[in-house]
From TrEMBL:
Family: Belongs to the ZapA family. Type 1 subfamily.
Phylogenetic lineage: Bacteria, Pseudomonadati, Pseudomonadota, Gammaproteobacteria, Enterobacterales
Predominant location category: cytoplasm
The protein's name: Cell division protein ZapA
Functional description taken from the UniProt entry: Activator of cell division through the inhibition of FtsZ GTPase activity, therefore promoting FtsZ assembly into bundles of protofilaments necessary for the formation of the division Z ring. It is recruited early at mid-cell but it is not essential for cell division.
Cross-referenced Pfam families: ZapA
Source organism (scientific name): Buchnera aphidicola
UniProt KW keywords: Cell cycle, Cell division, Coiled coil, Cytoplasm, Septation
């Protein structure tokens, strides 16, 4: 069974996208965020080639996502090392008793 389709608008163009009903609000939100970024880039660069705007915005989003992934990995490693240190401290404290 296929998902229902909804229409989203990007740079004045309507695009039909297959999306489950329970995810439609999230898709509309994502489309709105993307549209705002495309409009900002269009204003900043003066570019009107839609393909170029989409490619540049896509690259920017991918770059931001990769940076966030790296931050997450760093945070997880830091939390793990802190947990190991706490476990060691607890073991030491319990063994002294």
């Amino acid at each position: 069974m296929s998902s229902p389709s909804i229409d989203v608008e990007l740079l004045g163009r309507s695009i039909r996208v297959s999306c489950p009903d329970q995810n439609s609000a999230e898709l509309y939100y994502a489309a709105d965020v993307l549209n705002k970024r495309l409009e900002e880039l269009k204003e900043k660069t003066g570019a009107y080639n839609i393909e170029q705007l989409i490619f540049i915005t896509s690259l920017n989003i991918c770059h931001e996502l990769e940076l966030e992934k790296q931050k997450s990995v760093h945070c997880i490693k830091h939390i793990k090392s802190r947990m190991l240190a706490l476990n060691k401290m607890m073991d030491t404290a319990l063994n002294k008793e």
